[in-house]
Amino acid sequence: MDTTSKSAIFISEQGDLLKSVTEEFKTYNHAYALSPDQLVNTALAPSHIDLVFYHTDGELNVHTLDRVHVRYPDSEIFILQNSQFHHQLDLFSSRPWLRHYLSCLPSFDLQEFIHLYKLKLKQHRFGLKSFFPGENDTLYLDIYDSQKKDHYTETCLAFLEPRLNSLSKARLGNVLEELIMNMIWDAPRHEDGEPLFNKISRKKSVLLEEHQKGRLAVTVNDQHIGISAEDPFGAISLEVILTHLSRCFFSREEKDTNSAGAGLGLYMIYKCSEVFNVNVHPGHRTEFIILLPLRIHSKEHQRQKSFHFNEVSYE
Amino acid sequence: MSSSISYQKSIQSGTPTYHLSGVINENADLTFLAKLEPGTNVINTREVERINSCGVREWISALKSVPEGATIKYRECSAAFLDQINMISNFLGNGTVESLFIPYLCESCGAKKDSLIELEVCFSDDELELPELACTSCEDEMELADDPEQLFSFLE
């Protein structure tokens, strides 16, 4: 077994399902299918297991679950019971790709699962967790209502309050609000790719539908605040980002308040960040991962600011 | 919970003083800037929590309506206001900064404190001399929790 990278385990009490999953998983280096008994005897290192799917059509086997929790404390564990998804919110956090997966239920679709897991593998390499390995408390929020913009920002600030000084709090608040506004007004697209809301005034309310919702995550370690802002549109390009940034850096042009996508928000995010990372799956998903320093040191001790743009695509 | 910017006007030592509080955003009503009186007006931004990109545009646009003959002194600039001063050109309009809050950190015990700096006292002959601050918890000397070059880049 390949234990050199993050892996997923599928555990099933259903013999037939387990057999078919095992056959499929043989083609992947990072996925394993086990029965509950095999779990005890299988030597998969805890640090290598990223995802566990536990499937049962009967009563939830709490002993097996306990065994999984103890062996793989850093893994995300998703439970499918009676072909319906059961998500233990007090233990695990959700992922946007999983919301899409849920839309395939109530019947478990193996092909869809594998398809989404492949996507998850690609995304995980560049996700927020890749910047914040290990256990870090993370807050997740669905972003969909422009009238709750301040509420979203304040919730994140309150979550991190003890770790912030006045400047880092101000900067974090600014960055959060700009990312939220981007998710609500700038990112959403029609099916033909045309912008939905970015030409309307920010004073007008927007309420996103379920499939348009964005996802915000914030976390912190000793050095940085980490922010992930995902939208399900994948509409931004490197050209757009660089155009906005260069305009703000090199132009004294002032922007009309009602104009769309002026780029000032993007510039403000970039100025505050130490790491500015954008993952885009064109037409499907964008994720901004922003790292803000908890404290800015004097020049000789400052880290180099970094900018990354990654295009993620299906095979 | 933050609300869009509001202000209270008072007269202090004969000078009109506007205390701003809240968030400067797309809904900010900054029409008070068009009603500034001739001479010196003080804008106190101690309670300004956040300024988003729409708020920056509203602010800069509103500064254009400041009547001729009215000047602005910015007092007790909050961290949020200071950040925009350093990031956005023309954010001060024709005004100058009198005082600002800067963050200090005690490396020994982790205590945090914002200290009010009067520029007239700390900045002269192009030299910046920041006061020493003792931690109220452990009495060790506190350090500036940010890069002084970035904090005071608006002075350049």
What characteristic shape of chain B results from the CA principal axes? Answer: globular
Count helical runs of chain A.
Answer: 10
Question: What is the ordering of alpha helices and beta strands of chain A?
Answer: EHEHEHEEHHHEHHEEHHEEE
- Please give the share of residues in helix of chain A: 25-40%
| Biggest beta sheet summary of chain B | 5 strands, mixed
Structural class of chain B: alpha/beta
Topology as H/E string of chain B?
EEEHEHEEEHEEEEH
The largest beta-sheet of chain B arranges its strands as 1-2-3-4-5
Measure the end-to-end span of chain B. Answer: 35 Å
- The multimeric state of the shown protein is heterodimer
Strand order of the main beta sheet of chain A, please? 6-7-8-10-9-11
Average of per-residue pLDDT values of chain A: 76
Q: Give the low-pLDDT segments of chain B.
A: none
The strand count of chain B comes to 11
Write down the overall mean pLDDT of chain B.
90
Total strand segments of chain A? 11
Radius of gyration of chain A: 21 Å
Cα end-to-end separation of chain A: 24 Å
Helix content, binned percent of chain B: 10-25%
- What is the strand content of chain A? 15-25%
What are the key terms here?
heterodimer; A: 315 residues; alpha/beta; six-stranded mixed sheet; five-stranded mixed sheet; B: 156 residues; four-stranded antiparallel sheet; 4 helices; 11 strands; 18% helix
Give a summary of the structure in a few sentences.
The complex is a heterodimer of chains A (about 325) and B (about 160). Chain A has about 325 residues and is of the alpha/beta class.
Q: What does this protein look like?
A:
- The complex is a heterodimer of chains A (315) and B (156).
- Helices cover 34% and strands 22% of the residues of chain A.
- Chain A is an alpha/beta fold.
- In chain A, strands 6-7-8-10-9-11 form a 6-stranded mixed sheet, covered by helices on one side. In chain A, strands 2-1-3-4-5 form a 5-stranded mixed sheet, with helices on both faces.
- In chain A, helix 7 (149-160) packs antiparallel against helix 8 (166-186), helix 8 runs antiparallel to helix 10 (264-272) and helix 9 packs across helix 10 (264-272).
- Residues 85-97, 99-105 and 252-261 of chain A have low confidence and may be disordered.
- Chain B is an alpha/beta fold and 156 residues long.
- Chain B is 18% helix and 40% strand.
- Chain B has 4 helices and 11 strands.
- Chain B is globular, with a radius of gyration of 16 Å.
- The model of chain B has no long low-confidence stretch (mean pLDDT 90).
